[in-house]
């Protein structure tokens, strides 16, 4: 049976009440580099997004889940994106917004639950992740979760410090 509850967190669908959290997260310029964002999001646009968040992964090719702590507070998001049912693969992305919640096993628990869902329920063969080369915490996390480095995209991300390489990770389910 699919388990969306870990030791210290659980995953759930986005709710209308997540508007403020989503607004704070999407407009946090510290994470724009990893989210490929270049302009702020309005609450109106995010409200429209939340109104459509219930749509099926087979329709929108994405699934976004809210990471919540045991106090039922939203602390991050985890996504399956570029869902490709024909080739049985999807990208995986994760962000834990509050730094105080990082380095406590949240990422590993959330990725473990989404991997179980992707492989057991969606029948995927592989997941991939893109990590900027200087994001050491994410590199360690994906390696810990059994993802393999399979390539480097040279000068892939432009930032205020110039171009950065992006590492491509892949997890193939046997």
Automatic annotation (TrEMBL):
Documented EC number(s): 2.3.-.-
Enzyme kind, highest EC tier: transferase
Keywords: Acyltransferase, Transferase
Protein name per Swiss-Prot or TrEMBL: GNAT family N-acetyltransferase
């Amino acid at each position: 049976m699919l388990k969306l509850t870990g030791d210290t967190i659980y995953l759930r669908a986005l709710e209308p009440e997540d508007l403020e959290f989503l607004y704070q997260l999407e407009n946090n310029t510290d994470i724009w580099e990893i989210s490929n964002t270049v302009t702020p999001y309005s609450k109106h646009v995010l409200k429209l997004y939340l109104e459509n968040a219930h749509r099926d992964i087979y329709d929108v090719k994405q699934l976004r889940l809210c990471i919540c702590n045991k106090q039922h507070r939203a602390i991050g998001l985890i996504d399956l994106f570029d869902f490709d049912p024909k080739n049985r693969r999807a990208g995986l992305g994760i962000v834990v917004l509050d730094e105080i919640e990082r380095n406590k096993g949240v990422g590993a628990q959330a990725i473990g639950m989404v991997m179980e869902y992707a492989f057991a329920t969606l029948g995927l063969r592989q997941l991939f992740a893109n990590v900027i080369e200087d994001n050491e915490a994410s590199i360690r996390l994906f390696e810990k979760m059994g993802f393999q480095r399979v390539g480097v995209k040279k000068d892939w991300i432009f930032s205020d410090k110039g171009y950065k390489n992006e590492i491509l990770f892949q997890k193939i389910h046997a």
